[in-house]
């Protein structure tokens, strides 16, 4: 009882409920994927975390529609780019730029969930589907089923662990001028396109975590906030990778026992979900939860989780640092034009 009291001492009841919702959602998603041996199991663990942790309000019809609509848009756009335009890289880049611009435009005009989820799905599916070894049917099936299951799981999590007190509404976003909005949209669009060029030009099929991390840091939409977000993300990824490596050393050759893996998955999720709920905004905790979901989502009896954790930590650090350099250069470039100058 004392340990439980100490664990909850620095968070209120609503935050503790959120931590339990996130843990339940990510665990149910991972269990479904692992029990039925579904492809791309990371999707099933990550998407419930997005709905239950990244979005500050209760899952409702508006959130559900935006989230599922983003899945449809992301799959249609990525399928069109890869299937029809792969032989024409210049046209493919122009179309990708337009889709990215549309996503960031939605983010700054009140459709943040749709825009943010769409650009994540678009970039990740294009990245994965561009390799010959990828099964499109498996990839698209995993994306659709993971999205639907995540919505169902999020409703169930709120039903079992509702908020216990009155929750303060999220603060209203600051009023921005048209020029500031243009700066945000084009900052995200240009950096997203630079990332697209790099991952399409190099053979980085094992760097899905680095690819999606560089997109997630752009969700802050401002250079100074992107830098803060990136620093916290790197710390969260590093600590969660250390956790996974420590667990692998503890269980040694027992990771093939499903129940043992489940127990440590729940423990890790609860630790980092609680940290996320304590912070109140995406900081160190949220990237920690997604890292565990991705690493365990790709777990097989032959996996070397220590090696994969080290590779993930190093690749994400390098990718995010390069993205920060791109953000800085793009910020100064946009400030050279009156229509996009940040004041």
Automatic annotation (TrEMBL):
Keywords: Membrane, Transmembrane, Transmembrane helix. InterPro entries: DUF2955 (IPR022604), UCP029594 (IPR016926). It comes from the Bacteria. Pfam families: DUF2955. The chain crosses the membrane at residues 38-56, 63-82, 88-104, 111-129, 141-161, 181-198, 204-221, 233-251, 257-274, 281-299, 311-334. This is Uncharacterized protein.
């Amino acid at each position: 009882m004392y340990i439980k009291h100490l664990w909850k001492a620095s968070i209120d009841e609503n935050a503790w409920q959120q931590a339990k919702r996130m843990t339940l959602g990510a665990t149910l998603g991972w269990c479904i994927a692992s029990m039925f041996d579904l492809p791309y199991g990371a999707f099933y663990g990550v998407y419930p975390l997005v709905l239950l942790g990244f979005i500050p309000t209760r899952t409702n019809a508006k959130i559900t529609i935006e989230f599922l609509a983003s899945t449809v848009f992301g799959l249609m756009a990525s399928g069109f780019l890869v299937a029809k335009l792969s032989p024409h890289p210049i046209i493919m880049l122009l179309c990708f730029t337009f889709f990215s611009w549309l996503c960031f435009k939605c983010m700054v005009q009140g459709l943040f969930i749709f825009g943010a989820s769409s650009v994540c799905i678009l970039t990740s599916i294009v990245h994965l589907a561009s390799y010959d070894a990828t099964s499109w049917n498996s990839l698209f099936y995993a994306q659709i089923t993971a999205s639907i299951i995540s919505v169902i799981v999020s409703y169930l999590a709120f039903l079992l662990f509702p908020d216990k007190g009155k929750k303060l509404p999220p603060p209203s976003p600051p009023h921005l001028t048209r020029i500031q909005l243009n700066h945000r949209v084009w900052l995200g669009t240009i950096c997203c396109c630079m990332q697209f060029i790099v991952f399409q030009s190099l053979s980085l099929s094992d760097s899905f975590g680095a690819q999606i991390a560089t997109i997630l840091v752009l969700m802050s939409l401002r250079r100074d906030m992107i830098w803060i977000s990136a620093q916290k993300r790197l710390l969260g990824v590093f600590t969660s990778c250390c956790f996974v490596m420590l667990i692998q050393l503890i269980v040694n050759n027992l990771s093939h026992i499903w129940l043992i893996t489940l127990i440590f998955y729940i423990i890790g999720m609860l630790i980092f979900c609680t940290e996320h709920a304590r912070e109140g905004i995406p900081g160190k905790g949220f990237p920690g939860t997604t890292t565990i979901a991705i690493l365990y989502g790709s777990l097989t009896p032959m996996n070397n989780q220590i090696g994969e954790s080290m590779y993930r930590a190093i690749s994400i650090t390098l990718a995010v640092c390069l993205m920060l350099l791109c953000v800085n250069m793009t910020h100064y470039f946009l400030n050279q034009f009156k229509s996009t100058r940040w004041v």
